[in-house]
Design a protein that fits this description.
Blueprint (H helix, E strand, L loop, with lengths): L1 E6 L2 E4 L4 E9 L4 E9 L6 E7 L5 E3 L7 E6 L4 E6 L8 E9 L2 E4 L3 E6 L1
Parallel strand pairs: 2-11
Antiparallel strand pairs: 1-3, 3-8, 4-5, 4-9, 5-6, 7-8, 9-10, 9-11
């Protein structure tokens, strides 16, 4: 089992920045990938970004490219999402995701609200 705990959400004005963190614990020794998804009110959950654990190779949704940066701290089993130039349409619950031994794990989510 893998447990994921997100932090860093909150309320920010458009154009501002936030940094999300997600700490993984449990059976993390074969971590393949960690990342972020988000779900806005009335919409389906969508991919935001992920990072390959061994190589650090990132991947981003087109909607956040150039504004969001994903990074990791292998020693602390933690992934970060630096979000800059935030827009009202970025408002959502952000969920951390981890792929370990082919199993997908989810955090409980952290709310990001961007006011116009």
């Amino acid at each position: 089992q893998v447990q994921l705990v997100e932090s860093g959400g909150g309320l920010v004005q458009a154009g501002g920045s936030l940094r999300l963190s997600c700490a993984a614990s449990g059976r993390t020794y074969s971590m393949y990938r960690m990342g972020w998804f988000r779900q806005a009110p009335g919409k389906e959950r969508e991919f935001v970004a992920h990072i390959r654990w061994s190589s650090g190779s990132p991947s981003y949704a087109d909607s956040v490219k150039g504004r969001f940066t994903i990074s990791r701290d292998n020693a602390k089993n933690t992934v970060f999402l630096q979000m800059n130039s935030l827009k009202p349409e970025d408002t959502a619950v952000y969920y951390c995701n981890a792929i370990v031994d082919g199993i997908s794990y989810w955090g409980k989510g952290t709310l990001v609200t961007v006011s116009s």
